[in-house]
Design a protein that fits this description.
A 7-stranded parallel sheet has the order 3-2-1-6-4-7-5. It is of the alpha/beta class and 255 residues long. Helices cover 46% and strands 11% of the residues. It has 2 domains: 169 residues, Alpha/beta knot, CATH 3.40.1280; 75 residues, Helicase, Ruva Protein, domain 3 (Orthogonal Bundle). Helix 5 packs across helix 7 and helix 8 packs parallel to helix 10. The termini are far apart. This is tRNA (cytidine/uridine-2'-O-)-methyltransferase TrmJ. It catalyses: cytidine(32) in tRNA + S-adenosyl-L-methionine = 2'-O-methylcytidine(32) in tRNA + S-adenosyl-L-homocysteine + H(+); uridine(32) in tRNA + S-adenosyl-L-methionine = 2'-O-methyluridine(32) in tRNA + S-adenosyl-L-homocysteine + H(+). Catalyzes the formation of 2'O-methylated cytidine (Cm32) or 2'O-methylated uridine (Um32) at position 32 in tRNA. One of its GO terms (cellular component) is cytosol.
Amino acid sequence: MNFHNIRIVLVNTTHSGNIGGVARAMKNMGLARLYLVEPRAFPSEEATWRAASAGDVLETAVVCDSLEKAIADCQFVVGTSARERRIPWPVLDPRACAAQIRQRAGSEQVAIVFGREDRGLTNEELQQCNLHLNIPTSSEYSSLNLAMAVQVVCYELRMQLEAPRLPVEADAQWDAPFARAGEMERFYVHLEEALAEIGFLDPEAPRQLIPRLRRLFSRVRLDEMELNILRGILAETQKWVRRAQDAESGPGNNQ
């Protein structure tokens, strides 16, 4: 596992002190790559003060204006979630999730995404993730400070780094790189366009079709070659539909 391939992503952090606390939690466990999506206030003196000796993590933090940009080059994305969602997604606890990341972070870019202090990640943001992470807590008081949550996850990653080397998972020897998040987002746009064009998706009443397809492909994890094949199929399907439409509207079919 290469810690340099793992990034911690914070979305819309409200309190700048929490950013400093996260930086300190990361450095305690040996992680250094921090991405901030539209933080309310950064840089700030409070963040620097809370970071203590982890100011270097703040200095190299990458600020992005969207989650899509923060994870665009990642091949494995984990989203933290404290509650059940309308569409169930694969959910792991921090220990099991760290074991999954260990198998991937040697050669893939991995992002662990944490949401807003008051309401976490939106459904749309979570649907950009391969799996979800839930930290077990007491039912009597389940609220975790953002830095505390990051510390728990980073600790489990550290434990995986220190653990004896395990047999390499089968997909580590895959013949093509796994698709990155940005490539998958472009695929989902293409897929939605094609499904609407052939009449399978009604944009006015989409039901839960696209979120469920997102869940399917997130679970499967397409590689770049497989993704190109699927996009080629979509493109050819669109061509056939347009040819058929042109034929129906041709001069010989005018009433």
